[in-house]
Amino acid sequence: MQEDARSTFVVGDVHGHLDELLAALADAGLVDEETTWSGGDTHLWFLGDFVDRGPDGIGVIDLVMRLAGEAEEAGGRVEALLGNHEILLLGMHRFGDTDVPSDFGPRSFARSWEMNGGQPTDQDAITDEHVEWLTERPAVALVGEHLLMHSDTVEYLVWGGDIDEINEGIRAVLRSDDLVDWWEVWRRLTTRHAFRGPHGAETAGQLLTVLGGERVVHGHSVIADQLGIAPALVDGPYEYADGRALGVDGGVFVGGPCLVVPLPWNPKPAEDEKPS
After folding, report:
1. Residue 265: is it exposed, middle or buried by C-beta count within 10 angstroms (0-12/13-18/19+)?
2. Alpha-carbon 83 to chain mean position
3. pLDDT of 148 higher than 60
4. In whole angstroms, what is the distance from residue 176 CA to residue 167 CA?
5. How far apart are CA 262 and CA 244, in angstroms?
6. What are the pLDDT digits (tens) for 238-258?
7. How far does Cα 165 stand from its chain's mean position?
């Protein structure tokens, strides 16, 4: 999946924080006071993890689905990637506490869902329409020079050597009843930090060579954890790996901001760098 990067914004992990998301979208001029799309022909991408850890994950999904229709009518576009917590939500809905065959102790979607902030209200509210919509979401997208994905991992390559293969490979699993394959999607998309450390830029560059683009843009890993600061001190995305990676998970569920980030990202100059 590839599209023009013109007038594009990305949203990091929301985790059920609907009010914070609406406030951030309004600040970016993308919704009005009635929470109706006001972004015109802007393209808005959500990078996954709508649910768990917060009060209204299904409400977030409903909002995104509604805005997608409103944006299309206005000549814009609202799209969403699958996050690992969408896999967890769907896996819990489909398989519940069925044991996953394993040599490493008891495993089930119910157990992982409970341990990772699963909300009973989300499970109560999920419908067949939600399941169908989520199942058809891509996992990876190329937007201009930006490679969008939820998790900062190279595990996506397990399902294919290009974006279309990856997306169709994961969709095929989610259309199936194979518990082990489902678990592998969940397990692999929980991995993180592939672009950190002394070889992080090289790893990001290798992934970009395979899938395209000049910079990976991802959620999943909270910026405050990456920087070793309090979540409330996060005020924008985190550029790292020699500029080849941009993290946009502000950590809203731990008190950080819900980030709505324009692409390409151009950080504000420091006070002493501003032109006179």
Report:
1. middle
2. 5
3. yes
4. 14
5. 16
6. 999 999 999 999 999 999 999
7. 19
Positive or negative: CA dihedral 5, 8, 13, 16: negative
DSSP designation for 69: H
What span, in angstroms and rounded, lies between the C-alpha atoms of 46 and 149? 10
Q: DSSP H helical segments within the chain, as ranges?
A: 18-27, 57-73, 84-95, 109-115, 120-125, 128-135, 163-174, 179-189, 200-211, 223-227
Question: Token pair of 107, please?
Answer: 């495993």
* 251/257 Cα distance (integer angstroms): 6
First to last CA, the chain: 42
Q: Tokens for 83, please give them.
A: 């996050």
Assess whether pLDDT exceeds 50 at residue 272. no
**What is each CA distance from 219 to 32, 35, 260, 269, in whole angstroms?**
25, 24, 12, 24
Beta bridge partners of 218: 149, 247
Question: Could you tell me which of 25, 41, 37, 44 has the C-alpha nearest to residue 67?
Answer: 37
Q: What is the pTM of this model?
A: 0.94
What amino acid occupies position 95?
F
Sign of CA dihedral 165, 166, 171, 173: positive
Q: Whole-angstrom Cα distance, residue 87 to residue 183?
A: 9
Contacts of 233 (CB under 8 A, 6+ apart): 224
Burial class (CB in 10 A: 0-12, 13-18, 19+), 250: buried
DSSP reduced 3-state for 155: helix
Number of alpha helices (DSSP H) and beta strands (DSSP E) in the chain:
10, 10
Residue 275: the pLDDT is 46
Q: What's 37's DSSP letter?
A: B
Nearest by Cα to 99 from 110, 89, 90, 88: 110
Token pair, residue 42, equals 């802007």
